[in-house]
Amino acid sequence: MRGCSHRGLGRFLAGKCVRMAVLVLLVSFSAFMLVSLSPVDPLTANVGQTALGSMSPEQIARLEAYWGVGTPPIRRFISWAGDFFRGEMGTSLLYRRPVALVIQERLANSLGLMAAAWLISGGLGFGLGIWAGAKKGGMADRILCFYGLIMASTPGFWLALMLLMIFAVRLQWLPVGFGVPVGVEAEAVTLADRFRHAILPAAALSLTSISSIMLHTREKMIQVMESDYVLYARARGESFRRIVWRHGLPNVMLPALTLQFGAVSEIFGGSVLVEQVFSYPGLGQAAVTAGLGGDVPLLLGITVISAWIVFGGNMTADLLCAAIDPRLRQAQRKGQTS
Amino acid sequence: MEQKEKTPLLAVRHLSISFTQYKRWWRREEQQAIRDLSLEVGAGEMVAVVGSSGSGKSLLAHGVMGLLPYNASWEGDIFYKGEPLTEERLKKLRGREIVLVPQGASYLNPLMTTGEQVRQGARDRESRRQCREALERYGLGEETESLYPFQLSGGMARRVMIAAAVQRKPCLVIADEPTPGLHLEAAKRVLSHFREMAEEGAGVLLITHDLELALLTADRIVVFYAGTNLEEAWAGDFTQEEQLRHPYTRALFRGMPKNGFQAAAGAQPYGDNLPEGCVYEPRCPWRQEQCRQPVPYRQLRGGRVRCWRDI
Ligand SMILES: Nc1ncnc2c1ncn2[C@@H]1O[C@H](COP(=O)(O)OP(=O)(O)O)[C@@H](O)[C@H]1O
Ligand SMILES: [Mg+2]
ipTM of this predicted complex? Predict the structure, then answer.
């Protein structure tokens, strides 16, 4: 956002992409290093101690080759990176299917969940933040602040467990877990089924992510309401509602957009734990399984994809701000003509 | 004074404004920014409040408009057309009968075009015409309407806010430093517009730190210093030093370029270290023991002064 004020849009985007590529490389390398430093032995984890005990040494050697136990980590990383640049994401060791396919399937499940949580937390958080900030010190403000502070310090997985216990176990209104009903053929699963299964995870995810956008919006709204231009609007006899609508909303919108698109990463992180709690077959759950099971190709694939999604969020925020904010709009026009 | 008999348009009596501030988390501190301020503006009259920066002039303007910050509290009386200026009355009057010309470009919404702000969002033809006319009057062309505040110069922003204020024939104009950023000719033109409005019957409270400009157009001058008024004089009194009633006003008089720029020594006291008695006492060449006690605001030679001595 700040970077593009002196350059043209094209150069701005190119610069961002280069930075992103470097970042992806570093992130995937550190993910890889973490897996190879992990004390979990992929053979014991995936085949099982007892099964290993009954195998012949030749079988074990073949398995070790399959999981890449003997090869030095650096060599494995380089060979993965080489394949990746050729557009080849490799085969998941756990699922024995192409990584691209696994990710595609999991992403389809997760994306709905994350998009719902993102929209709900963004919309609700923004609206409530405006309300609390405009009526600072009022009853609603105090209740919302209390909620925000409680939620900001509540771990997502704990909230997920609570929801699970109340709505799935005790009240039995909603399913306990998984993305689709158990014991139903894939063809027979309806959209309504999928929706019902996504409600609790999406709720757990949104309820925790609301607080940061809400508190931030509130803070910004208070600033705006105390600004000189709101004082002037009041001096000119504009009503409270008009002031919130005409001066408050637009001026709070820009920072809120930046924050909410940046929050994609938090929602992504939250989804890993929440999916785990609800056994929801999403990307987050696959990431945990891959990490614990030493499935390097899958883990790295997921790492790169999530980095791109988070990056995409930030980039969208930058572009939107540049399109909305008149100050940045003008800076861009100048940058392109000069 | 003559206005005493008629009810003045605006009367401020014994106004004090203080801020509550927290120092080191727990220590609450009251800081007085305006103390025992009284002034009057009659219909058809232009009164200038002259004081240096930080003396509380903007605060006075915001106080009259009923727009003090949340940590400020005030006491005293404010009358408009003879009746107390309550919050309910203000709600109806603000922006219609009583208008404020604020101090700087920060009072414009950064994300809204000039035209939209002058029209306050109205899109009908009549408002557009009014807006066009008002801007035209201050030498701002059609293109100004589509500019955002960050694209305006300081002087342009001021003229935009003046145009916005006067487009609806107000009864009372409070102009907070409307001239800085304008070159002399433009400043004089702006002041002569205010003068015209006064001739047509409006009351104008001009707030400025520029004594010379104020003397060009105002009827009366209220000299403001460290949150209170030290003297109220007719503009005509400023032709001779002997006619001025307060040592500070005399110092201001000698500080004017045509009188040889003789600045007085010392500086204005602020907020928490205001003297108990006369605020000018530390710098006054005539100070006596008596000056350490509160000094009443009293009549003298057709004006008013806050000083014991008849100088
Ligand atoms: N919100 C505030 N909180 C605390 N003090 C304030 C606040 N606003 C103004 N003041 C104090 O009031 C004094 C007068 O300010 P102001 O009216 O802006 O002066 P002027 O317009 O004459 O330059 C200043 O010294 C400042 O410290
Ligand atoms: Mg001021």
Answer: 0.88
